[in-house]
Write a structure and sequence with these properties.
45% of the residues lie in helices and 19% in strands. It is built from 21 helices and 18 strands. It has helices spanning 5-8, 15-24, 56-62, 79-84, 107-126, 135-139, 141-163, 182-189, 206-209, 214-224, 235-248, 279-286, 289-298, 319-332, 354-374, 390-399, 415-422, 438-441, 453-464, 468-484, 487-497, and strands at 28-34, 39-44, 47-52, 70-75, 89-90, 99-103, 169-175, 194-198, 229-232, 253-255, 260-263, 266-272, 305-312, 340-347, 382-386, 402-405, 428-432, 446-448. A 10-stranded mixed sheet has the order 5-6-4-1-7-8-9-12-11-10, with helices on both faces. Strands 15-14-13-16-17-18 form a 6-stranded parallel sheet, sandwiched between helices. Strands 2-3 form a two-stranded antiparallel sheet. It is globular, with a radius of gyration of 23 Å.
Length: 501
């Protein structure tokens, strides 16, 4: 909790004026701690070259540098990152990026943490897909915890402690499921600092966490209780965290009336902050020459109506069921064969993890099945773009008549928020009720249960045939919501909550 005299004066200020005070506060510095950095390095002509990293977390938090002095603490993504600095500070390696310091964790520990524990154990558990894990993955849980997760979190804590040694008022924003132990580790080292942790994926209730070893689930929840504010995407995740703390951290006292947890004299407030996007920046990207070129190239691939999806190749995204639903729609409506296209922009993800590799094969099998059944000589129903090309994906969303976002579970899902903002055709958003974005966007979407194949096919049919006036009405609702609760709102809401007594 921020406790300096100057900051206590913010109670008399508006949120915007308080932000101005932060910028001017002598001795203040902001740190972000995340598994992934805003830039990564690749070897080019024998020398490391900086490149921007992708992902919603990076996009959201890198924007903070427009307002605050920021140092980003990240795990080294590979040998080039290590060669560039290891534990040294890099001064804005790319224009507009924050300063970056790579944490000196061993490559072995990082691999154990990421490949054997955080992914897949935590990712699958927190998305309600633990049953998809192989026996070998489950058997590696304790080893991944001991040899990877704990050492990596300790390495982050040590690096951050060194970095802020001479800083009077440090604030640390720890991020996501890779670093759940970090808030408590930092609190032990510097009781005076302000810590806010944000979890970008769902936080389920006790039933899911029962699958972990008792000591692990206890330490994960206790770790987040080192933060002054524990942030989640939705109120459902807030409730899941509170219930789990009550069950797995018996020494803690949960106050449901205040959404807070007391542990050893320290109070952690638990809040929901639905992550958002930057509407103005997205619209600029839509007009980018490379995006325009992608749109021209995609135009010949469109149908009379076109369904689009943009996803990582991830089991939680429910891609295969989306393809099956499209096939079912073509079966029900043979008059649509040859007229409707489905363009899928899929990004390779975690291909070395067996569960991901198996799911990718399931997706390809379903795509081939639908195409084999319904393709015509000069037309095939599904076209897949399998690469990480953000501008191409934005071009696809701009041209969509229907955007399908049907994850089994998702912390938020920024595609659901980007699509309506970049659309040039008043696209209809078909959105899963289990997606974190659903609570915000429900007034303007067609909702589906993620496992209901027939209902998903019916929602796609309804979206394709929706009258123009209704399409305009729905997308206007979505754009108004997103303009009001944008990326700046998300960042500001979290920072300003640190000022509450």
């Amino acid at each position: 909790m921020l406790s300096t005299a100057p900051i206590s004066a913010t109670k008399l200020l508006t949120r915007e004026r308080a932000a101005s005070l932060l910028r001017a506060l002598e001795g203040y510095r902001l740190y972000v701690a995340a598994n992934r950095g805003p830039v990564h390095h690749q070897m080019r002509n024998g020398r490391p070259e900086a490149r921007p990293s992708a992902g919603g977390l990076v996009t959201a938090l890198a924007s903070v540098t427009d307002y605050f002095p920021l140092t980003w603490m990240a795990a080294a993504a590979g040998p080039a990152d290590r060669q560039v600095g290891g534990v040294s500070l890099l001064d804005r390696p790319l224009p507009g990026s924050p300063c970056v310091r790579y944490v000196d964790a061993s490559e072995e520990a990082l691999n154990w943490s990421y490949q054997r524990f955080a992914n897949p154990i935590l990712w699958f558990l927190q998305h309600g897909m633990y049953e998809r894990l192989s026996e070998s993955s489950r058997a590696a849980m304790e080893s991944g915890w001991i040899m990877g997760y704990r050492p990596v979190n300790n390495a982050f804590a040590e690096a951050i402690e060194q970095e802020m040694a001479n800083v009077a008022y440090p604030i640390v924003l720890t991020q996501d499921y890779h670093l759940c132990l970090l808030p408590s580790l930092l609190r032990q080292r510097r009781p005076d600092i302000s810590i806010q942790h944000f979890t970008h994926i769902p936080w389920p209730g006790p039933d899911q966490w029962m699958r972990l070893l008792p000591s692990i689930r206890h330490d994960l929840h206790k770790g987040l209780l080192g933060a002054d504010v524990a942030g989640f995407q939705t109120q459902d995740s807030v409730n899941g965290f509170l219930r789990s703390c009550e069950m797995f951290v018996p020494e803690a006292r949960v106050d449901y009336s205040q959404d807070a947890v007391q542990l050893h004299g320290h109070r952690t407030r638990v809040r929901a902050y639905p992550i958002s996007v930057d509407p103005a920046a997205l619209r600029r990207l839509t007009a980018h020459p490379e995006t325009v070129a992608h749109k021209k190239r995609l135009l010949p691939l469109l149908g009379e109506r076109t369904i689009v999806r943009v996803d990582r190749m991830d089991p939680s995204k429910n891609i295969a069921l989306g393809f099956r639903a499209f096939g079912l729609l073509l079966e029900r409506r043979p008059d649509l064969v040859g007229k409707i296209r489905f363009l899928a922009f899929l990004v390779p993800s975690r291909e070395t993890i067996p569960e991901y590799a198996r799911y990718a094969q399931e997706v390809w099998t379903e795509e081939q099945r639908v195409n084999a059944r319904f393709a015509r000589e000069d037309w095939r129903p599904i076209e897949v773009f399998y690469e990480d090309d953000r501008l191409q994906a934005i071009a696809g969303m701009a041209l969509a008549d229907v955007l399908l976002v049907n994850p089994v579970a998702d912390g938020m899902n920024l595609v659901a928020k980007e699509g309506p903002l970049v659309s040039e055709r008043n696209s209809v958003l078909v959105l899963s009720k289990s997606c974190g974005a659903y609570r915000q966007l429900a007034p303007g979407v067609l909702s589906v249960e993620p496992t209901d194949l027939a209902a998903t096919a019916s929602a796609l049919e309804r979206a394709l045939e929706m009258p123009s006036a209704e399409r305009r009405r729905r997308i206007a609702i979505l754009r108004a919501l997103l303009d009001a609760e944008d990326l700046a709102w998300w960042v500001r809401s979290q920072l300003m909550d640190l000022f509450e007594d």
